[in-house]
Amino acid sequence: MTQLDMARKGIVSEEMQHCADVEKVSPEYIRKGVEDGTIVVVRNRKHQGCVPVAIGRGLKTKINANIGTSQDHHDIAFELEKVRICVEAGADAVMDLSTGGDIRGIRRAVMAASPLVVGTVPIYQAAADTLAEGRSIVEMTGDDLFRAIEEHGENGVDFITVHCGVTKRSIGCIVEEGRLLGIVSRGGSILARWIDYNDCENPLYEEYDRLLDIAYRYDMVLSLGDGLRPGCIADATDRGQVQELLLLGELTEKARQHGVQVMIEGPGHVPIGQIEANMLLQKRLCHGAPFYVLGPLPTDIAPGYDHITAAIGGAIAGAAGADFLCYVTPSEHLRLPNLDDVREGIMASKLAAHIADLAKGLPGAFEQDAQMARYRKEFNWQGQIDLSIDPVRTAAWLEKSEAAKEEGCTMCGELCAIKLGKRDSHRMF
Asked: Whole-angstrom Cα distance, residue 93 to residue 67?
């Protein structure tokens, strides 16, 4: 049985119990959320040594970190170092998006090294295999694609992005309305080109039951991908994006009927005034399924600072109901991320997730901030370091004030407001 099967039978699985313990909620809360489809418990039954994670309503906002090679840079050791950074920095999941080098070997190595749940985009492997055989991407077959999906399930991949909503109809909406930047999703672009060349429907949509059968066998969560997501502010919330979302809502219901868990991927570039509306629209159309968002990025003009842009968008999205934030690194749109980029992206997303949890009133979130205030009042430096979002950076940047006998940092020294307030507290309070 899958997690969804067990939840429907009233069974609390070991994975559900673990997630309940981590989230500090009742096991029944997790079970009922899985049954209703508002929570997914992510773990492929073949992924040994992996810690399951629950994503969805009433739970901590989770963070995913993308890693993976390109045709220009493909070093397995480097990718494993990225995995180490992801674990150390506190990501909840990692996605291997490799498109270059030994894609299979890299995936197996990442799976073996990661205690975090791992996601992939199988169409990347299917496309790479097709090219390696001397065929064009448009000569890829449905069997090629489903073979890759099966292989990823057998390898223990916990969740997969599948662009099932990229169809003749949804692509037609983009063509009719027009877009400034077109399709920016790699998977979405591959499928759109394939559909146009072959004049055939997307195999992931046309043979959706075949996909569900594979996902069911391994209890893989389907992350229904936003292949037509807007890649710039000008294209946000257009007919193509919304039509894809409508299709994903229909496919969500079919997956649940099949015993397969589903989450929905959300838009990339969205102006700040449309973020909340996008979250509400997704939840309504996709029947409360957990929402996994890339950013979103509320401006297009921040190359080198897109982790900050994404943190702003992610905090607003999370507060409005997004459940899972895909990090964005400073190198987004510029290069393959290095180790520092990965760490910076995770920290920015963790900050956004915590701000969202505060806005949601999630139990325990406010207490962390209140405890930080107490540590500051007490000049408890180690407490501040340990509680901070990035203890490594906090410790490295701290300069205690010699002038103030370490009661305060070098920003204010003897003029520290907290120090002065303590000195005069008998008169002020």
From this structure: 11
User: How far apart are the C-alpha atoms of 286 and 38, rounded to whole Å?
Assistant: 10
CA angle, residues 357, 362, 367, in degrees to nearest 5: 90
138, 194 contact by CB (below 8 A): yes
Give the 3-state secondary structure of residue 2: coil
Cα 218 to its chain centre, rounded Å, is: 21
CATH code, residues 3-360 = 3.20.20.540
Radius of gyration of the chain from its Cα atoms, rounded to whole angstroms: 23
Q: Select from 222, 226, 145 the least CA-distant residue to 184.
A: 226
Residues 6+ apart with CB under 8 A from 204: 145, 162, 163, 164, 166, 191, 211
Partners of 65 in the beta sheet? Answer: 94
The per-residue pLDDT for range 296-334, each reduced to its tens digit, is 999 999 999 999 999 999 999 999 999 999 999 999 999
Planar angle of CA 6, 208, 238, nearest 5 degrees: 105
Is the separation of the CB atoms in 116 and 93 below 8 Å?
Answer: yes
| DSSP tally for the chain: helices H, then strands E | 20, 10
Q: Please tell me whether the peptide bond between 298 and the residue prior to it is cis, using omega within 30 degrees of 0.
A: no
57-66 pLDDT, tens digit per residue, is 999 999 999 9
Q: Which of 268, 267, 276, 273 is nearest to 244 (CA)?
A: 267
**Distance of alpha carbon 227 from alpha carbon 167, whole angstroms:** 10
Q: How far is CA 257 from CA 98, 213, 313, 368, in A?
A: 32, 12, 33, 40
| Cα–Cα distance for residue pair 43/116, rounded to 1 Å | 9
Share of the chain above pLDDT 70, in %: 98
Cβ neighbors of 178 (< 8 A, separation 6 or more) are none
> Taking the CA of residue 170 as centre, how many other CA atoms within 13 Å lie in the half-sphere pointing to its CB?
29
Q: What ranges do the domains of the chain cover?
A: 3-360, 365-428
User: What's the angle, vertex CA 13, arms to CA 11 and CA 14, rounded to 5?
Assistant: 150
Q: Which of 348, 285, 355 is nearest to 319 (CA)?
A: 355
